[in-house]
Amino acid sequence: MNRPLSAACAPAAAPLRWVFIALWLSASGFLASGCASLPANVARPVSSALGAPDETPLGQLVQQRRSQENPRAGSAFRLLDSVGAAFSSRLALIQAAQRSLDLQYYAIHADASTEILLQGLRDAARRGVRVRLLLDDFNMAGKDAQVLRLAFEPNVEIRLFNPLPGSRRSILARIVTSLKDLPRLQKRMHNKLFIADNAMGITGGRNLGDEYFGSDDTSNFVDLDVLAVGPIARDMSASFDRYWNDELAYPVQSLVSQQDLDALRQAPSTPADADPSRRLVNAPAAPAAVSPSSVLPDVTFTAVVKPGPTPMDLRKVPLSWAPALLMADKPGKIGPGDDEVDAGDTVIDGLLHLMDQARQEVLIISPYFVPGAPMMQTFARMRAKGVRIRVLTNSLASTDAPAAHAGYARYRKDLVAMGVELHEMRADQEGTVGGMGSTSGFGSGRAGGSKIGNGSRASLHSKAVIIDKRLAVIGSMNLDLRSQLKNSEVALLIRSGAVAQEVGRQVESTLAQGAYRLDLDQGGLVWRAPPGAAFKEARSEPEASAKLRLLVRLIGPFAPDEML
After folding, report:
1. First to last CA, the chain
2. Is residue 197 flagged as an active site residue?
3. Is residue 483 part of a domain?
4. pLDDT digits (tens, 9 = 90+) for 512-533
5. Does residue 92 sit within a domain?
6. What is the CATH number for 505?
7. Of 405, 423, 463, 486, which is the active-site residue?
8. Does residue 353 have an active-site annotation?
C-alpha cells in the first residue's frame, strides 16, 4: 500500500483515521504523550553499489544477451504483470546474486510469502553476498518488526528511513509520541527497488507481502512492476545509494533497544521447526527447493499452500531493448520541516510535463487519484488539444483507502464533464476477468488474469502512465498531491512501443471486463457495469456498503488533498 498511518500498511484513509484516534486517546489520557527522541551522532558508514558489468554472472549475462539480441541497445525490460512473475523474478535475482543485493521498500510484511524471500536473502548473505535493506520506518512495528531480525545476520545491513521514536510494539503509540511533528510523520519514503549485482533490478508499485503476491485471504492487490537489466540498473543503484547514505537513514542497531531486540528474537517455534535459528520472521515455514549453483541457478520453490510459480530463467526471459530514464525524487524531499518542494523537481512534476507533451492519448493507472487544482489544469490543457485521457483507479468498494477516495470523489464530475474517461476497478473479481496482473496466489506465471477466489477482494495497486502508445512510465507513484509533495517516489520512463502497448493491452482488458465506466446523466454520476456484473448501471458507489459511503461523506470535508 502507499500511505502512512494505517493498520494494514498505509493507505490514504489511514492518515486521518489514525491521527484522529491518536489525538483522542492522547487528550483522554489513555496514552502518555511521551518524550521519545531519535538518537544523535549516529554512525552511518558510507557504502555504494558493488559489481561492474562484467564482474558477475548476472553482469556477464546482460552483456551476452545484448550482444546477441541488440548490440546497439543499452538497457532491456520485462513487464512483470502476474504474481508468479513478480515473485519468481525476485527469487531468481536472490539466487543468482554473487556480490550484492540492495532492496529499498516502503513496506515489507512479516508473513508467509516474505518468509521465503527473507530466507533467501539470509542464505545469500551466508554465501558471501552483501545484503542492504532500506525500509521506510513507519510499518516496522508490531508483527512486521520481526523483519528487522535479519539485520543481526552477518553480511546484512538494514537502515530505516525517516524513523519514528517510541515503542515498536504498537503503531498507534508511536504515532502519539510523534504528533508534535505531524508534518514529518506524514512524509514517507515510498520508493521500491530490488537490485542484484548492480546488473538487474525491479521497480514498480509492489511492496513485499502476501497481499502483494495474491495469497491474502481477504484482499489482494492487482499490481505491476518491471524487470530492468543493463546500465539502467546502475542508475537504480545510484538512487539507492543516495538514500542509503542520507542522514535520514538510521542503522537498525541505533534504534532498537536491548529490550526490543530480545522481544524480536523471541519468535515462537513449533515441532515442525527443525532449526529454529533459521527462522527470520514469525510466519509458517515454507520449503525452498533450490539447487546451489555457481552460475545463474534456475528458480524453483514450493509455496506455503498453493503451487509455486513457473520458474523464471533469467537466461531466457523475453526482453525488450529500449532507451530509458530513471525518474527519482531526492531524499531531501522528505527531510525535516514542512517546506514545499521545489517546483518542477519531483517525479510527479516530470510526469505531468511528459503528459502535457502528449499528442494523441494518455492512459493513467493510479489506485489513489486525487488530482488537485494544478493537475486539473494540466488535464484541461490536454483536453483542449484533443488529447484523449483515460484513467483507471479504484472504486470505493475496491480501495483500501476511503479517505483518498473522498478526495478523488471531489473531482469526478468535473473530470467527466471535461471529457476525461474515468473507470473504477471492481472489487468482486470472482473468476478470471483478464486484464492486469494475476492475483491468484503465487500464480502460474501466466501474463494476466485478475483471478480472485475464496471471497478475496481485488484492489488496484498498479501505478503507470502510457503516453501515445510509445512511452511507458512504471513506478511507485500515484497521480495525487501526496506523491507530488509528501512521499518520495521512483519510476522508470521507458521509450518502447512494445512495453507501452503490452501495458495498454492489459489495461484494455481490465477496462472492458473488470471496471465500471463513469458517465454523467442529468447532473449526476452513473456507473456503467461491464459484462458479468449483477447490474447494468448504478447511481451510487457500486458494491460499497452504506456504512462505507457514509464514512466517505463524513471524511470528505476534513481531508486536505495533500494529506491523502
Report:
1. 13
2. yes
3. yes
4. 989 999 999 999 999 999 988 8
5. no
6. 3.30.870.10
7. 463
8. no
